Automatic annotation (TrEMBL):
Keywords: Acyltransferase, Repeat, Transferase. Coiled coil: none annotated. The lineage of its organism: Bacteria, Bacillati, Actinomycetota, Actinomycetes, Micrococcales. Pfam families: Hexapep. GO terms for molecular function: acyltransferase activity. SUPFAM superfamilies: Trimeric LpxA-like enzymes (SSF51161). Belongs to the transferase hexapeptide repeat family. This is Acyltransferase. InterPro entries: Hexapep, Hexapep_transf_CS, Hexapeptide_acetyltransf, Trimer_LpxA-like_sf.
Length: 568
């Protein structure tokens, strides 16, 4: 039912959302805005200001398609974004900054000033002061709400009707009451639905991976030995020990058994035959039948902090444990190092240009100590600890409290934090994570890792590799054991990466190390599959969804400490 308006009452002033700039009202608006522009106001396209709105501003800027409704009272220094509405009878006064898409309900008060309240003068003689109010993007303020001076309202916020807002409001919050309190996060319902969908995807992925585990392992078994990738796709590959360790880890995580067709004891023999009895190090061995009998020769130098021999302490050491065995010999090359020798070696390293290599050296040294403690504590002096306490002490003393890392950033054109963050992962995996110890500066580390996570290089075919994604999620996952710092941002990154990772699986082939690369690393193989299965678990666990996978890595990328240290 429609009634005739009282004299001087215009429907458009009370229903400004009906405004059409191309109608005759457009000329009325042009005249109204011309008056205000003469006083310094600026307007975007499609702006509407009711004829009976009280607009007396020292400074006024209004973005496209925004409006001020009937009898609104608007004064002070106002910056209003696009698609904003100040509905009838609302009061907006003081120093106010609005983003885009702010909706202010009828009879609401946005008061960006306050009276002084000293007790030596009557209040009406003291004047006012202002901190100002900031309203983010996409904010809905219900009718009769009040926002007091000094408040910042985040993006995507809903303020309930009649709420009195006296303090800052975070992004996505719904607030209500007097004084207003956060009653929920708007993302909760969306997050729950997304998590349910993602849980279903994780369950389906894990089922598919388990069903195809035998095929992908068989695909990488050629001429009596495991190779990282089929030679037909990746080219000739030298016999190596790591593919055997990767095959053991993949079978363990997906099947809970040794690789199909292999006996655990025989695999332990194959993996440990070429461990050097004197040093305990493991070269990149030939595991063919002939290679098993070939002894080490003097032209195969083994450095406990460099080269493939040091890494194979990790891969072989963990694979043998998954098979129920252990290395036959302790890693004496590490155990016999003094703390002073280890520290001198670490001090001599270039932690700027060589942060990754330095972190890898720490990983290898610390893992050797962990294996010595768990498997040879009764055979070695000091229970097998060797230089581990000196190593950990040096690391704790040298961590940078501003970045949380040990390495320094690199200048362009190399991605600024790539070396340092990748080295941080290797270092903390072998030390703090492997021994169940807290990080020295977890919040600072999260800040730095998230800066690196936004580097565009990680999204390129060359940058999107198992190493680079693992080197971000493991630090975030590890730091989350101590702090919730920036967890929302980390979770958003992890969610996107998890969906991308699940989409990179190739049926019956597994994961490629660099799924989008056109080179050999873009061919699915054992190393890529072992690493990405662990990455998927870490991403899912960071999001609280890892139970949907039905597996938990137990090898090199195990989330559980290998050993917990006793007091020295």
């Amino acid at each position: 039912m429609h009634h005739s308006p009282a004299a001087g009452v215009r429907r458009i002033d009370y229903f400004p959302w009906e405004y059409d700039p191309t109608s005759s009202e457009g000329e009325v608006q042009a005249a109204r805005q011309l008056e205000l522009a003469a006083e310094g106001a600026t307007f975007g396209d499609g702006v509407f200001i009711a004829q009976n709105a009280a607009v007396f501003c020292d400074q006024l800027s209004i973005g496209d398609r925004s409006y001020v409704g009937a009898l609104a009272y608007v004064t002070g220094d106002l910056t209003i974004g696009a698609d904003c509405s100040i509905n009838p009878y609302a009061v907006v006064r003081g120093e106010i900054r609005m983003g885009d898409g702010v909706r202010i309900g009828a009879h609401s008060s946005i008061l960006g000033f306050n009276h002084r309240m000293s007790n030596d003068l009557p209040i009406h003689q003291q004047g006012t002061w202002s901190k100002g109010i900031t309203l983010g993007d996409d904010v809905w303020i219900g009718s009769n709400a009040t926002i007091l001076d000094g408040v910042t309202v985040g993006d995507h916020v809903i303020i309930g009707a009649s709420a009195v807002v006296t303090k800052d409001v975070p992004d996505w919050a719904v607030v209500a009451g007097n004084p207003a309190r956060v009653i929920r996060d708007r993302r909760t319902e969306t997050r729950v639905a997304r998590e349910r969908d993602l849980e279903a995807e994780l369950d389906a992925f894990a089922r598919r991976a388990r069903e195809q585990a035998g095929d992908l392992l068989a695909r990488c078994y050629e001429d009596g030995r495991f190779v990282d990738r089929p030679s037909a796709a990746a080219g000739t590959q030298e016999p190596a020990i790591r593919p055997w360790a990767d095959a053991v880890e993949i079978a363990d995580v997906l099947l809970g058994t040794p690789p199909p067709g292999f006996d655990a004891a025989d695999l332990v023999r194959r993996l440990t035959t070429r461990q050097d009895p004197a040093t305990g190090l493991v070269p990149a061995a030939d595991l063919s039948d002939q290679g098993l009998a070939r002894p080490l020769t003097s032209d195969e130098p083994l450095d406990p902090a460099d080269g493939s021999a040091s890494y194979h302490v990790l891969s072989v050491g963990y694979a043998v444990r998954l098979l129920g065995g252990r290395l036959p010999y302790p890693v004496r090359a590490v155990h016999e190092l003094s703390e002073q020798e280890v520290i001198a070696s670490l001090e001599a390293r270039d932690w700027g240009a060589g942060a990754w290599g330095s972190g890898a050296a720490v990983d290898s040294l610390a893992t050797a100590c962990a294996l010595n403690i768990t498997d040879f504590s009764a055979d070695l002096a000091d229970g097998g600890a060797g230089p581990v306490y000196g190593l950990l002490g040096w690391l704790s003393a040298r961590a940078n409290p501003e970045t949380g890392l040990w390495g320094a950033p690199q200048p362009a054109p190399e991605p600024r934090w790539l070396q340092a963050v990748n080295g941080f992962y290797r270092l903390t995996r072998g030390s703090y994570a492997q021994f169940g110890l807290p990080l020295p500066y977890p919040e600072a580390a999260v800040d730095t890792v998230l800066v690196h996570a936004s580097d565009p290089h990680l999204g390129t075919p060359e940058g999107y590799t198992a190493c680079n994604i693992l080197d971000v999620i493991h630090p975030l996952w590890l730091a989350a054991k101590q702090t919730g710092h920036r967890r929302t941002e980390g979770s958003a990154w992890a969610h996107d990466q998890l969906r991308r990772a699940l989409g990179s699986w190739s049926d019956a082939e597994g994961f490629a190390f660099a799924p989008h690369s056109d080179g050999p690393d873009g061919v699915a193989g054992l190393q890529g599959t072992e690493m990405w299965l662990s990455i998927v678990w870490l991403l899912a666990d960071y999001l609280g969804l890892s139970d949907a996978l039905g597996y938990r890595p137990r090898g090199v990328h195990s989330p559980d400490p290998l050993v917990r240290l006793a007091a020295p």
